[in-house]
Amino acid sequence: MVKESASAARAVKEASGVDWVSVGDREADICELFELASHEEVSFLVRSFHNRRVCEDTKVWEVVDREAPVGRMRVFVKEKDKRERVAELEIRFREVRIRHPKKEKEEVRLWAIRAKEVSPPKGEEGLDWKLLTNREVRDFEQACEKVQWYTVRFRIEVFHKILKRGRRSEDRRLGSLDRLERCLTIDMITAWRLMYLTMLGRETPEVASDLLFSEQEVEVLKLIKYRGEYAANKGRSLSLREAILIIAPLGGFVKGKGREPGVEVMWRGIRRLADILIGVSLTTSIPQFDSG
């Protein structure tokens, strides 16, 4: 799967003009990937699993630890209980030449970055990300850029989770590949919208809700929020944060200290919002007859 990801990045790189990077977790720390990336000129970033040799008696992370820290950066991380916190990471890096485990005379030129949490919360294991990349790292800013790339991997997992649990894309039985591809295209757009909505709700909660919702959806959200006082608040704008806090309870979210709506409750909430929108549309379109 790792090789397929790198090959896919190579296939689309020139066609789109976008700078593509294949990002992988610890299972991607294999020499075959390093060789493939070197031959096909594919950029990659992986989390290290093996402490590989750089010379006869020295290994890569021993060499990196001798370097002085170049600075600190902060990242958002999610705990197992779904709480989010900010972690402060101390950054070290250096260029290394890793020896091939089976071909003694061959070396792979990479950059190694260690991002280790400075003061993790009491009782919790701190972050310690050891990253390898074939993209050049010459200063603190470039090292932080690569660490930030790795954090995006978690969003990819969330995207796949929405496809599997929300859209149930794996359960499709459509009879042909062509039909499946068309359906998956719709599923991916829906999953992207949901993930983007949840992400922006946390990072930029003050933006206007009409950035992601139609005019009809915003008005229905106001109806839910203000109920009997809708007429008096009809002209008011609704922030994205306000919209999310209306939708999340529709999906079963219970507000609590430190809790934020996740993609699952937002998915259920949006589905209910769609049903409510249909109901409102039908109500307003039904002719009103004089009972007299």
Automatic annotation (TrEMBL):
The secretion signal range is: none
Q: Ranges for the Transposase Tn5 dimerisation domain?
A: 190-281
Q: Which domain of life is it from?
A: Bacteria
Q: Which InterPro entries does the protein's record reference?
A: RNaseH-like_sf, Tn5_transposase, Tn5p-like, Transposase_Tn5, Transposase_Tn5-like_C
Q: Which Gene3D superfamilies match?
A: Transferase Inhibitor Protein From Tn5, Chain (1.10.740.10), Transposase Inhibitor Protein From Tn5, Chain A, domain 1 (3.90.350.10)
- Could you tell me which NCBIfam families the record lists for this protein? transpos_IS4_3
Name of the protein in question:
Transposase Tn5 dimerisation domain-containing protein
